[in-house]
Specification:
One of its GO terms (biological process) is leucyl-tRNA aminoacylation. InterPro entries: Leu-tRNA-synth_Ia_arc/euk, Rossmann-like_a/b/a_fold. Belongs to the class-I aminoacyl-tRNA synthetase family. The protein is mostly helical. The protein has one domain (about 5-65, about 90-140). The protein contains seven helices and two strands; from the N terminus they run H-E-H-H-H-H-H-H-E.
Length: about 150
């Protein structure tokens, strides 16, 4: 759990929810255990980035003005030849981060305040922050899930 749920999660979960609901209508006892996957290395890497940014730029970080560069995409020769119009032009990284270069800026783009972001320098804080938000999002969606934490 290193972020909030997005439309892709909703799309995938709705297909499972529909299948479970259909089986319930058939009279079967169905449990849809929705688990929250926490990948340790990406969370630890992000927490370490936040620590480093506070060490390098203070708290709250005062980033240099000249770092508003957009993350550049790597385009292979095959990608240049095959232009699938159904695919977006931005890489997943660019789509997620926009113009943000630093982890702190990414967290700010989620609407978090500096005091809240500071807590994310502890990797375990990620595990307590995001799951309740995701459970609330799932409830708003109407998902009938049995959470496995």
């Amino acid at each position: 759990m290193n972020g909030r749920m997005h439309l892709g999660h909703t799309f995938s979960a709705s297909k499972c929810e529909f299948a479970a609901g259909f089986q319930r209508l058939q009279g079967k006892q169905v449990l849809f255990p929705f688990g929250f996957h926490s990948t340790e290395m990406p969370i630890k890497a992000c927490a370490d980035k936040l620590k480093r940014e506070m060490e390098d730029f203070g708290y709250p970080p005062n980033f240099p003005e000249d770092v508003e560069e957009v993350v550049k995409e790597e385009v292979s020769a095959v990608d240049e030849i095959i232009k699938d119009k159904s695919k977006g032009k931005k890489s997943k990284l660019v789509a997620k981060t926009g113009n943000a270069k630093y982890q702190w800026q990414i967290m700010k783009s989620l609407g978090m305040e500096d005091e809240e972001i500071k807590k994310f320098s502890d990797p375990t804080y990620w595990l307590y922050y995001f799951p309740p938000h995701c459970m609330n999002d799932l409830k708003k969606m109407g998902l009938k899930y049995g959470a496995c934490l």
